[in-house]
Amino acid sequence: MIPLPLARIAEITSGALAGMADPRAVVRGPVLIDSRAAEPGSLFVAIRGERADGHDFAAQACQAGAVAVLASRPVEAPCLIVGDVLTALAELATATVAALPRATVVGVTGSAGKTTTKDLLARLTSLVGPTVAPVGSYNNEIGHPLTVLRADEDTRFLVLELSARSEGHIADLARIAPPKIGVVLNVGTAHLGVFGGREQIAKAKGELVEALPADGVAVLNADDPLVRAMADRTQARVSWFGRSPTAGVRAENETMDERGRASFTLATPSGSADVRLRLYGAHAVENVLAAAAAAYELGLPVATIAEELSRAEPRSRWRMEVTDRPDGVTVVNDAYNANPDSMRAAFQTLGVLGAERRRFAVIASLRELGDESDSLNEGVGRLAAEAGLTGLWVVGENPWPVLAGAKGAPAVHVPDPAEAAAELAAQLRPGDVVLVKGPRAAGLERVAEALLGGDAR
Fold this sequence. Notes:
Blueprint: E1 4-5, H1 6-13, E2 16-18, E3 26-27, E4 31-32, E5 43-45, H2 58-63, E6 68-71, E7 79-81, H3 85-98, E8 104-109, H4 114-125, E9 131-132, H5 143-148, E10 157-161, H6 169-176, E11 181-184, H7 192-195, H8 198-205, H9 207-210, E12 217-221, H10 225-228, E13 237-242, E14 249-256, E15 262-268, E16 271-276, H11 284-297, H12 302-311, E17 321-324, E18 330-334, H13 340-353, E19 359-364, H14 373-385, E20 391-395, H15 400-405, E21 411-414, H16 417-427, E22 433-437, H17 445-451
Parallel strand pairs: 4-5, 5-6, 6-7, 8-10, 8-11, 9-10, 11-12, 12-13, 13-14, 18-22, 19-20, 19-22, 20-21
Antiparallel strand pairs: 1-3, 2-7, 14-15, 15-16, 17-18
């Protein structure tokens, strides 16, 4: 973070110092919402959540070294009281970006693959200069400004992931850190029930390209019709990526090895280079191409891009992590989240990785799909039925549409991850492959943890 005295932070956020806060005291970072992570020089942001109120931990944070607490009411610690904590957090992040004219902001959005693409792109930009990127999926109104506030005078690139929970959400995030480059991966069915349809999802995702300046670049997926249409919504120059021969940055001569990892020729307007991925699944190619296209716009040579992408391994947890146990059982932990599109990709990967092997899956009913929930979950069940599974466990609430779609497959419902793990463990033998995949709220990473002896990685 850029060091700022409390008096300046109060000015930025229109806040009032209280609790014996020293206006000359300097916040050097980090800015955080977990009092347990407080350290000397930090600023603790007291957020009132459903389960806990950060204001109750204000004294603890300051005892650990926090300079002050950003709060909406007085607390028993030096504090800066503001009308709305999240608004003040956003204002502080906006002021930080404005003070970093050398930093290039790159925004990434899409229905699936945001975190992987962000991780890949941050790896590439780090070759050019100091880069700040979210940890995991810090992509909402809390995580986004917290990530921005990690930047300092040395930062050259801010690679940010932007999620949309409602119309206008991405536009709000883009105002905090105005992007120079905007990457849109795809428009799928994630949060379909929230938005009401894919066209509405596309409208929300397209807010990223609308936020770009005239001298910016929109990096768009040429293979997705709803993303292609976003070219008409931006004043920025458009750079296309994809498998389409019309894409400027594209994959040619794509092949897949027996472990479900793709190899291809990365073609660009200034030359080509071979890529051999360590990432699993054909869907990873889309993410890699998006990162490559953005890095190409930043001036990285194609050979360097290809070499670095070939070295990349999963950085964020529970996203297509493939682990071989000593007994030969392979566990595919893709439990971070799920939607119909990512379920299809996961089962396709299972089919490749599990060729000539017994295949099992532990999944859960998908959520936030609105009126199409039952039909889309039945589709997930059909994917499972077509995967040639030896066993399928559907965990948690409302499993019936999935089970109906999986009719004919050896499928059972269990109430919780622990029971699924126990039943599955009793059936596994050397050489088997297990896919663990479901919505984040289902907690299916615990199945992978149990199968791997307590280590989900």
